[in-house]
Amino acid sequence: MTIKFPNDFLWGGAIAANQVEGAYREDGKGLSSSDCTPNGLFGDIVDRNQNNITGIKDRAIDFYHRYPEDIALFAEMGFTCLRLSIAWTRIFPNGDETQPNEKGLAFYDRLFDEMEKYNITPLVTLSHYEMPYYLITQYGGWGNRKVIEFFTRYAKTVFERYKNKVKYWLTFNEINMSLHEPFTGVGLARNSTKEQIYQAIHHQLVASSQAVKLCHEIIPDAKIGNMLLGAVAYPLTPKPEDVWATHNENHGWLFFGDVQTRGYYPTYMRRYFKENNININITDQDKEDLKSTVDFVSFSYYMSCCGTSDDSLRQKGNILDMVPNPYLKASEWGWQIDPTGIRYLLNLLYERFQKPLFIVENGLGAKDEVQPDGSINDDYRIDYMNDHLVQVHEAIEDGVEVLGYTSWGPIDLISASKAEVTKRYGFIYVDLNQDGSGSLQRRPKKSFYWYQSVIKSNGQTLKIKSSNE
């Protein structure tokens, strides 16, 4: 079989402001929730207005100053799309201002203009694992309905500013992650109750829908989507109890997509709220707002897991509690490698939501070694991505409408979970060590040239492996 992706398929990579930009207090930028977890999602939450502490994310890979060099390297690989995020606190440093920070707006103007030079399409996330820290301390994060207003003001500002430069938008990154890391997702304490977390999530879902409506009004030719963490689970066994437990586990994250594509809460969530004594304040206006639904569904996919009624089998993964699949191998970080899972997930989401899909994160984190001659031979990354992209093509052949593929971290960046540099995803190596030392020099890895050939051939250089490979 010859592999060839659709002619208008978007190829590229994905980055996040808080993991690449650095310059964390430059040009009027305010403190974000990410700035206050300098050691990653699992580190302590620090009030940096009161504590003298530094973190590797403060400088990160210095994309804020080096973006022309990085965009040129992305263009050399052949990118037609780059997913990135706007740092909310560059635009509204505290979050509740009525006037935006011009220096922050001007930075993204320069960035989008640089991408335009190379015909790289921006796919912009409004909120990627960060929000103004001031809104957390002074308003209680997304637990306060007032934050909806602040977010939509921010969204309206950037829509109006970049309406001629950005035609693809996303609202919230991995919106379902708030169930597992509420501080990162909705600005709530980690010991918050389920009711508090779901109320904050509701406010975020309303804000997402309001942003969709604003985008359609301000940029009629734009498309705006949501973004899910694709944590698909298979039944561990055919026991009916395991099948039903898996069904419920998948509902736990599919619910977000159901609301954002259908415009209302599904009945199974109403039962869940009732049985768990969760009372959510949903106004009539909220119900009306939720009817503004996304144009497409985007998602991340790194691994699958299993579902079972036996909670004792769960193991702590990167962020989620997972039941490992006994038939799969794992990466250095314990993430199970399942290329077929991305085909399964694409079919599942397309059948469920009946909206175009966009794979906006996928990749392999690994410890790359620089050889004496300066080369980085990351064949393991090439194998991982080859096998996943072959399955993406299979899903397209199944009839799934896939808009594009942006691999996570096309250039080495700071990991979100533990602020690690050693966990590298990139096609481009960055000379940076965990203690912050290093020249920040960029250097293509072997995978750089592999991905370049995949894009240039529109997938025809991908290798279909036999079952015994």
UniProtKB/TrEMBL annotation:
The active site is at E361. Its EC number is 3.2.1.86. One of its GO terms (molecular function) is 6-phospho-beta-glucosidase activity. GO terms for biological process: carbohydrate catabolic process. Gene3D superfamilies: Glycosidases (3.20.20.80). Keywords: Glycosidase, Hydrolase. It is an enzyme of class 3 (hydrolase). The keyword Transmembrane helix does not apply. The keyword Cell wall biogenesis/degradation does not apply. It comes from the Bacteria. GO terms for cellular component: cytosol. NCBIfam families: PRK09852.1. Belongs to the glycosyl hydrolase 1 family. This is Beta-glucosidase/6-phospho-beta-glucosidase/beta-galactosidase.
